[in-house]
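Weekly structure sync, notes
Attendees: PL (lead), two postdocs, one rotation student
Agenda item 3: pending single-chain targets
PL asked that the sequence for the first pending target be pasted directly into the notes so everyone works from the same version. It is reproduced below exactly as submitted, 367 residues in total.
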Amino acid sequence: MNPDYMRAALELARQGLGRTSPNPAVGAVVVRDSQVVGRGFHTYAGVKHAEVLALEEASAQARGATLCVTLEPCAHQGRTPPCVEAILAAGVARVVAALEDPNPLVAGAGFRRLREAGIAVELAAEFASEAQKLNAAYVHFMRTGRPLVTLKAALTLDGKIAAPEDNVGWITSERARAHVHEMRHLSDAILTGIGTVLADDCLLTDRTGLERSRPLLRIVLDSQLRLPVASRLVAGASDDLVVVGTSAAPPERRRALEQRGVTVLLLDGPGGRTDLHGLLAHLAEQRHLSLMIEAGSKVNWAVLEAGIVDRVFFYYAPKILGGLQSLPVAGGAGRRSRREAILFRHVTLHPIPPDEFAVEAYLVKET
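Predicted structure, written out during the meeting:
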């Protein structure tokens, strides 16, 4: 198979990013006589899956053709009938897929059904890594049962996120901040701590202006429910704001927030803090595939120490603050020896011209 066909399918899949959750972003092309005769990509609002859209565009030319798709076609009934049935009905002769679907409801069943019907099935292994990265949150959720958690921070070269005083302005450039909003667009939920809200009166919104399959769920860790009802977060709440407190919070504060349309979760964790693992379980129940954390030094350490972070995305500016009072990216107690350091792997550097860069890395976790 000409690799350009799978590249075209992957490019189609990217057009659905941010528009498919809790489904994966999938692209498909139908190839006949070395010509692409059908194209499709999935969006949640559009309902129809990529394979069906591509087959519909190809129409009669799909018979005897090859279908290139970025993810194994589904074999189960969901909001739509199984894609394998549409493929069989169209008379496709061969299916080439970049990745087996990790969804336990599929997990090879689509391939088996196609092969049983006499259709040739191939895995384009050289594209598996790219296809998996494109749907990193979906793959992670299906394999672990919980959201992919990304800790984002903007920091100086010496690892500082705030000065002792006069923190007006931004650490990183407008270009770096625009990329942050692209990441927000690809996230189902975003989390910060009450300290950040009280200091910045932030909004935590996706300001890309791009279509989403669901609103960005905004979450505040606030054990005592101190979130001001006059804050911009509360003022803009529309079934998209969750405040996570504990049973020690005054009941009248909970009522005041709920009266303004805020969802309040009481999740008691160790040391009077909120239960971070309980929050992830709640998000998983709601099928939120990804969570982005943008918080302060204390919360950053809390989520790292709790082991809920899967990935970090740190944006570095060409600046140094120095001093012992400037806040590090992760405060708290920290680790007492270098042997106990939290480890990372699969490190990727992302240049942000002219002088900035971002570091993406995955935490090493015990299996």
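Discussion points:
- The radius of gyration is 23 Å.
- The chain is about 30% helix and 25% strand.
Action: rotation student to compare against the earlier draft before next sync.
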